Amino acid sequence: MKSIFLTLIFFSVGWAAQAQFFIAGGHFNGGIANGRLNHETGGLFFPTLSGIILHEERTAPIQFGIELGYGIYGSKLERRTDLFEGFSDELRLRRNNNIATGMLIMRYILRPQGKVMPFVEAKFGANYLYTRYKIRESILSEETLEAGKDQEDWSVSYSFGTGVQIPIPSSPGLVFEFKANYQTGPSAEFLTKGDATFNPLPNGGGTFDYQVRRSPLEMVTLSVGFLVYDVFR
């Protein structure tokens, strides 16, 4: 999985050194579970932040690029006194469900000189889902007593969507962007908030049980953000 993201980053850096006309920016994204994912999770929501860089040919309104994103789609805090044998002080167990994404993008601008510029796009890449936990004495503790991963998996993903760009008159080159994408792909295994339960032993310590979900990451994602044209000029 790491090699896929390193390849995407290497591709974007090398490509940035050669291209002439760049667009770069960022989005806030909200993924709404659909189809099998909605049935499996009961309506999971995926909030992410992403950065995007695109190259557009000066002779045609066709853009190619890469988008990298990250988000936490579930977080749970437990305060327990029975996590370790012979230790009864209250400890904080924090568990986060994380998603990282890397997508190659192809986009076509339908009306590049209009006051509103509609576009269509297709994306292909990967999603990496992992659940991490940390045990600390308090929120201010610098020392982590224990940390690790409960679950991790990744899957290929492809997406199709449409959106609009609206130029900001007071800031030449800056555009506001809104878009909607439908994403699907092969199944991945992951945890959601509340899918890990602790079974304590009488003298402290114990084991965790996991309700692992399995589903394609089938969702509709709404995105808002800002992009800057000819950013490396």
The number of helical runs is 2
Oligomer: single chain
- How would the global form be characterised? elongated
- β-sheet strand percentage: over 45%
What are the secondary-structure elements, in order, as H or E?
Answer: HEHEEEEEEEEEEE
- The overall number of domains is 1
Distance between the termini: 34 Å
CATH class: Mainly Beta
Using only C-alpha atoms, the radius of gyration works out to: 21 Å
As laid out across the biggest beta sheet, the strand order is: 1-2-3-4-5-6-7-12
Descriptive labels:
elongated, two-stranded antiparallel ribbon, 62% strand, mainly beta, 2 helices, eight-stranded antiparallel β-barrel, Porin, 233 residues
Structure description:
The chain is mainly β and 233 residues long. It has a single domain (2-73, 95-187, 216-229), classed as Porin, CATH 2.40.160.20. Helices cover 10% and strands 62% of the residues. The chain has 2 helices and 12 strands; from the N terminus they run αβαβββββββββββ. It has helices at residues 2-18, 35-41; strands at 22-33, 45-56, 62-80, 91-109, 117-136, 146-167, 174-184, 187-190, 196-200, 206-210, 213-216, 219-229. The chain has an 8-stranded antiparallel beta barrel. A hairpin with a 6-residue loop joins β6 (146-167) and β7.
Sum this structure up briefly.
The protein has helices at 2-18, 35-41, and strands at 22-33, 45-56, 62-80, 91-109, 117-136, 146-167, 174-184, 187-190, 196-200, 206-210, 213-216, 219-229.
Write the layout of secondary structure elements.
Blueprint lengths: L1 H17 L3 E12 L1 H7 L3 E12 L5 E19 L10 E19 L7 E20 L9 E22 L6 E11 L2 E4 L5 E5 L5 E5 L2 E4 L2 E11 L4
Antiparallel strand pairs: 1-2, 1-12, 2-3, 3-4, 4-5, 5-6, 6-7, 7-12, 8-11, 9-10
